[in-house]
Amino acid sequence: MTETVPRPTLEAVAARAGVSRATVSRVVNGADGVTEPLAERVRQAVDELGYVPNRAARSLVTNRHDAIAVIVAEPESRVFADPFFARQLRGISKELTAHDNQLVLLLTEGRADHARVARYLAGGHVDGALVFSLHLDDPLPELIQRAGVPTVFGGRPGWSGGRDGVVYVDSDNRGGARDAVRHLLGLGRGRVAHITGALDQTSAVDRLDGFRDAVVDGDPRLVAEGDFTVAGGERAMRELLERCPDLDAVFAANDLTAAGALRVLREHGRRVPDDVAVVGFDDMLPFAEQTDPPLTTVRQDILEMGRLMARILLRGLDRTVRTHDTVGGDPAGVILPTTLVRRASA
Hints:
The chain has 346 residues and is α/β, with parallel strands linked by helices. The protein contains 14 helices and 12 strands. A 6-stranded parallel sheet has the order 2-1-3-4-5-11, with helices on both faces. A 6-stranded mixed sheet has the order 7-6-8-9-10-12, sandwiched between helices. α1 crosses α2, α1 crosses α3 and α7 packs parallel to α8.
């Protein structure tokens, strides 16, 4: 029978570092009031002894759980099929891990899940929430607000209606779309179509507005609604070819939509970019490089969006612990720039 080795205690760390137990506790719990040389001695002793703080005891001291809920307002089948979500979750996870916080993933398959998520948040299991892929009629923001959980949203919140303290991170969807369409027009294309994303999401609305900024008084038949999926791109591309067979360019709301459009154009014998030029949005590598032909697209830094969401939330939580302030001290909206990446499709 293997003998159990006792876990290092706070007292053992204090003895190794030559400081008081209270000093070790302050350093381990991230509190102020310890000089850097002393704090470094404590951290070295923690590493040497392999001391692991008792999270339950630490929570009593700091009133923190070191756990963050990440809520994706999409069904599981969509989240695990779309590389956008994997990349954003990766960015969030990297930032939370760097600060020794746990990620608790909550998905909403349907409206019945919203009450479950709200109960979980109100139960005090997590310190805050990161929420993305919201739809305009989604009840989640209201439920989260009632739960009183500090929250940062991914994407411009079209539902905010003037609420104070709403913090979000987004990309310049409108500007990126405008750049994409101006690029197509600069290639001499005169019949530029747009396949939108799901128009109950602000990113799709913003990209449609960017398209309209560049194509003033355009033919309304050159706009077809998609849903940010390959299948949606195929369906919308067929509609466009039926309505406007003379189109010579397509701006798709994301790379998956563009992939669907490319597949239908190929089926109809349209050469890309000779007959029809195609531009997407996201720059989802390696996906965008592996389409046929490789996809010209608008790059948004999805990984950084996730990291920044987590960073803003954690910074706000730290400030709350120190000053009893709220998380809302950061700018209400952070908009990251986009870049057009030119490849063979346009």
